[in-house]
Amino acid sequence: MTKPLQVSILGATGSIGASTLDVVARHPERFEVFGVSGFTRVSDLVDICIQVRPHMVALKDEAARAQWLELYKQRAPGASLPQAEIGEAGLKMLAGAPEVDQVMAAIVGAAGLQSTLAAADAGKTILLANKETLVMGGGLFIERARAGGATVIPIDSEHNAIFQCLNPSALNCMPVTPQGVTRVVLTASGGPFRTWSREMMEQATPEQACAHPKWSMGRKISVDSATLMNKGLEVIEAHYLFGLGAEQLEVLVHPQSIVHSMVEYADGSTLAQLGNPDMRTPIAQAMGFPMRLESGVGRLDLAKHGRLEFEAPDLDRFGCLSLAFEAMAAGGASACILNAANEVAVAMFLDRQICFGDIERLNRRVCDDLWPRYALERVNCFEDLLEIDDISRTLAREVAKEWTA
Ligand code: NAD
Ligand code: MG
């Protein structure tokens, strides 16, 4: 019998983390959890540790470690303790430990960058959910993954669908533009505000923005789905992952979220991947590749659905999508600036400091200010990107403070 693969789950307490743990639990002979990380939900992380008995756990800081230890001893008295590490160094240990085969990169936002890079440097199979790494510095990340001998398999449902439609066995798992591809179409559900007017959206609440009609996800990506920024970030993600030009990438709104994306070839064939909207499908596909594993996702019943609809996205009502296309065309650090501004804007919106309409305005304002200065600059290393990320966040906070004063 072959040894189970050792998996580290970065962001185990999140939505993708939970789906990953579910898939792992269905295949105990195939996978073992080497390490898990969590940030603020210490109690949940204790329960996960008791359930999967990892070798290592990574926590936010010393205070979180102390709380975790106390709860762990209370809930599992006498049980052996995983090695508990903290901070960025802890995340990097989970990602780069020699025992680890697969790293699920499922931390949300730019916070996931360093640990994903550590997995790239250590030559791991990276199950990439954290799209912000690619948006910030996709070119550099792919170079690092290649140099480190890593394999990158996308988890984002659209990119995983594209990966499946690109005949991945021919790709050796690494992003290369395959021969004969003329166009890639990313589908979008349209989010909770697909049919809302701009006026209605202006004052939408965090609860309304997070009530996604088709997918159950973390709060940040849910808000991004409501502004369609998520689709914008995904277009940039696809650009870097598959080496596709802006003219080859299109977005199509498909409210049923059954077709997860499509690849069009020169001979007129269009291949699509379909399935119920449940992240366990792309996770199981990526973890099992090239094998197909049972994921717990129910069968697709197209007769029950009856019809699948498609419509063009409305770039006027959803200016964040348009901004992302502009960032991709501008290149350099443009997408890094947009991503940073957007992370600040979404956090402030969720905290009820700015309104929904302000997200787009703040993003636009920061990009207008900083793109002329940094967009064309050749970004040579992640240190440069982190500096630009920091400058963008500071400006976003300052502008929002002026608005709310
Ligand atoms: P989530 O908010 O549910 O979970 C985020 C995880 O990251 C948690 O485990 C949290 O503890 C951890 N985290 C948050 N801030 C951190 C920090 N500063 N340092 C270290 N850890 C931190 O998010 P999610 O919905 O699971 O999404 C995770 C990633 O996957 C995002 O990049 C998202 O865009 C991407 N993604 C998610 C889905 C989905 O269906 N949820 C689909 C496609 C892509
Ligand atoms: Mg997606």
Please render the helix and strand layout as text:
Elements: E1 5-10, H1 15-25, E2 31-37, H2 42-52, E3 56-59, H3 62-75, E4 83-86, H4 87-96, E5 102-105, H5 113-121, E6 125-128, H6 131-148, E7 151-154, H7 157-165, E8 181-188, H8 198-202, H9 206-210, H10 219-227, H11 229-241, E9 249-253, E10 259-265, E11 270-274, H12 280-288, H13 302-305, H14 319-330, H15 334-350, H16 356-374, H17 382-404
Parallel strand pairs: 1-2, 1-5, 2-3, 3-4, 5-6, 6-7, 8-9
Antiparallel strand pairs: 8-10, 10-11
Helix pairs in contact: 2-3, 4-5, 5-6, 6-11, 6-15, 10-15, 11-14, 14-16, 15-16, 15-17, 16-17
The protein binds nicotinamide-adenine-dinucleotide (NAD) and magnesium ion.
Nicotinamide-adenine-dinucleotide (NAD) is lined by residues 11-17, 38-39, 106-108, 111, 129-132, 156, 215, 217-218, 220-221, 279.
Characterization of the model:
This protein has 405 residues and is an alpha/beta fold. The protein has 2 domains: 5-155, NAD(P)-binding Rossmann-like Domain (Rossmann fold, 3-Layer(aba) Sandwich); 181-276 and 284-404, Rna Polymerase Sigma Factor, Chain: A (Orthogonal Bundle), CATH 1.10.1740.10. The protein has helices at 15-25, 42-52, 62-75, 87-96, 113-121, 131-148, 157-165, 198-202, 206-210, 219-227, 229-241, 280-288, 302-305, 319-330, 334-350, 356-374, 382-404; strands at 5-10, 31-37, 56-59, 83-86, 102-105, 125-128, 151-154, 181-188, 249-253, 259-265, 270-274. β2, α2 (42-52) and β3 form a beta-alpha-beta unit. α6 packs parallel to α11, α14 (319-330) runs parallel beside α16 and α15 (334-350) packs antiparallel against α16. The mean pLDDT is 95. It binds nicotinamide-adenine-dinucleotide and magnesium ion. Magnesium ion binds at residues 156-158, 234.
